[in-house]
Amino acid sequence: MLCFNSTLKPNFEDIPNEEPDRMATCLPFIDALLTCNKWFEEGHMICFFTSRLEEHREITETWLEKHGFKYHTLLMGKPRGGNYHWIDNHLVKATRYNGKFTDLVKKEIKIEVFDE
Fold it and tell me: What are the sequence ranges of the domains in the chain?
């Protein structure tokens, strides 16, 4: 699963929950649309993880559909500020957005895990 960790929005404009009217009118980043849909077509499970509130689900789903994003899951209510851990009993791939979408590259890094 590719789980996109952002304040959602494959447009990645930081629209706060306190301004929901802007959520419907922002435009997507074309590289986000193309990359996400490419990964979807390659068989990746696409999950958007957003700090938007559950009350913003409909406007978010409508926006994703309007702009043609293909995805499997939309998780609402991510903690704001980014200081959290995702705990799962399966291998999870998370992709942090740093300003542009590109093909994924392999890197070896150290991460914290539970002791065996």
Answer: 2-96
**Three-state secondary structure call for residue 40:** helix
Class of domain 2-96: alpha beta
- Tokens 């009118």, located at residue: 25
CA distance 31 to 19: 25
- Distance CA(90)–CA(68), nearest Å, equals 29
The predicted-structure confidence for 25-58, as pLDDT tens digits, reads as follows 888 888 889 988 998 999 988 888 888 899 999 9
CA distance 40 to 34: 10
Rounded to an integer, what distance in angstroms lies between the CA atom of residue 116 and that of residue 113? 9
